[in-house]
Design a protein that fits this description.
It contains 4 helices and no strands. It is mainly α and 52 residues long.
Length: 52
């Protein structure tokens, strides 16, 4: 699931909220915390690294 989130983030078409809902999370904050726990950075930070 985290791998799929990474793919969606690197494509850059969707925002964090849209990605979390597509992956089945009702709470975007929970998704962001889980992502940070697994990856070490927030989804916004991850997305920023690939879009710059």
């Amino acid at each position: 699931m985290i791998a799929e989130a990474k793919n969606m983030l690197t494509e850059g078409d969707l925002n964090i909220s849209e990605i979390s809902h597509l992956l089945g999370f009702e709470n975007t904050t929970y998704f962001s915390r889980l992502f940070k726990k697994e990856v070490g950075i927030t989804p916004n930070q991850f997305k920023g690294r690939f879009l710059n």
